Known about the structure:
The chain is of the alpha+beta class. The protein contains six helices and 13 strands. The protein has helices spanning 49-66, 109-123, 126-153, 181-187, 280-290, 296-300, and strands at 70-79, 82-91, 94-102, 105-106, 154-162, 165-172, 189-196, 201-209, 213-215, 221-223, 228-237, 240-254, 259-274. A hairpin with a 2-residue loop joins strand 2 (82-91) and strand 3. The longest helix is centred in the middle third of the chain and has 28 residues, at 126-153.
Amino acid sequence: MGKGGACLTKPVIEQARSVGVHGVIAAAFLTFCIPALPQNTSGDGGLPAGELLRRVVDSELKAQANDHAHWMYEIKAGVSGKEQVKVAVQTREGYLDRLRFVNGQPITPEQEKQEDERIARLLKRPDEQKKQRRAQEEDARQTERLFKMLPDAVTARYGKRQGELVEILFEPNPNFHPSSHQAAVFHAMAGRIWINARENRLVEIEGRLTRGVKFGGGLFGHLDKGGEFHVKQSEVAPGYWEITLLHVNMHGKALFFKTIAVQENEIRSNFRRVPDNLTLAEAAEQLQRQSTVKSASVSGATAVPAIGRSRSSSH
Length: 315
């Protein structure tokens, strides 16, 4: 994303892929022991909290639209009870990743072969590449729609402040009427947002479902109260922001009583910019070279709790 100045350690608006939840942002392991601001005052010239939120949303959307940079980075995630480390590359043709470590150990020769074959299959299937790009583009459109909705879907008030960072506490706006399943989930959320007031950038957002959400009166499924998301955005290079932490935990039932278990738990680090004209084939070559180099972050990075991961859709 575009320019910014605060760097609290992790991310903001990408796809948090859950049942009706896209583009959520937050993180929660900093402790701010600062007195709360009065509800209708601001650290920015008395601007109401809702107006500051709207201004920051506009700034984020413009930054996204103007940012065409591509990155290589590491993803540490808990998957099916194991901790995995992957290296991912963004390209104009799509996204590519490669498994490197499982539970802190380099993958086996057999796993290397499986990764080679998986990536080779993707490169030989233009239809799969197009499908991936379409899915990414739709996620981006969904993210934009929901993010634009945020200032209207919630009521906002000021919380704490630390330097340039301002906390906004939000809860559902009773006068807002969601028009989609995604909006209904969004509207049932309460939580907090950390904003860099000087840069008009969103640094963190975390939220939880304050009540259960029913789709079609419950006929098409529901999400349970207490589901949560937590995303954080950091400045990974001067003027460039990327998501560096993503946590989503939702549960419920979908059509035909299928269990919904939407869980994401990722830490993203070691961002390195790659050429904007990089192809998928060139990205695959870079990933293969990277697979032979042990990253220093594996031994020193914060551990990610291993979690299961599955998805069902309610619509």
